[in-house]
Design brief:
With 174 residues, the chain is of the alpha+beta class. The protein has 2 domains: 98 residues, no CATH class; 59 residues, Nucleic acid-binding proteins (OB fold (Dihydrolipoamide Acetyltransferase, E2P), Beta Barrel). It has 6 helices and 5 strands; from the N terminus they run H-H-H-H-H-H-E-E-E-E-E. The protein has a 5-stranded mixed beta barrel with strand order 1-2-3-5-4. Helix 1 runs antiparallel to helix 3 and helix 3 runs parallel beside helix 5. It is rod-shaped, with a radius of gyration of 31 Å.
């Protein structure tokens, strides 16, 4: 949105002529309108910035303070309460959407493999430190510093190409 349009809109909202002709509030304090306009702008900015409610909270506070300043101009109390509730509802919706985008557990790639537990299905002939497991529907070759046995649960600690380094699942060092 063009910044000039926003500035013109704020200027129009703050002029006593607009208050007299548009809202019938001849004695209204323009600071109240400025604060409400600033609050609305902060709520709009909240959508574009990843600040998790800081600008939105400032917008609600600004709207409420602007409404309190306008109480001397006989602005209806239900209008002020409605403005505050709508602003709070908007902030709650925006925070809910922002929290849905927070980082989640990895579901693919190396990060998803690390820490996974699998069962040894087969050992390499003559070598009890190498074998195979089934993990996420795939057959992986594994290597372990300790001896492996068929049916043993192992935890993935690293991946090197197509080879997974594992440790016994009951050990804590990973």
């Amino acid at each position: 949105m063009n910044i000039r349009c926003v500035l013109v809109a704020l200027l129009v909202l703050s002029t006593p002529a607009f208050a007299t002709d548009g809202l019938g509030l001849a004695a209204a304090n323009p600071v109240g309108f400025w604060l409400i306009a600033l609050g609305a702008a902060l709520l709009v900015v909240e959508v574009a910035l990843p600040n998790y409610g800081v600008a939105g909270l400032g917008g609600i506070v600004s709207c409420v303070i602007g409404a309190i300043i306008l109480t001397n101009a006989d602005v209806p109390v239900p209008l002020m309460i409605g403005l505050g509730l709508v602003s709070a509802l908007l902030l709650i919706v925006l925070l809910g959407r922002a929290l849905k985008t927070r980082p989640r557990q990895p579901v693919s790639g190396d990060a998803a493999l690390l820490g996974s537990v699998a069962t040894v299905t087969e050992l390499q002939a003559g070598n009890h430190h190498h074998g195979w497991v089934r993990l996420e529907g795939e057959r992986w070759q594994v290597a372990c510093a300790t001896s492996l046995r068929t049916g043993q649960a192992v935890r993935v600690i690293a991946r090197k190409g197509l080879l997974l380094e594992v440790a016994p699942a009951d050990s804590q060092g990973a």
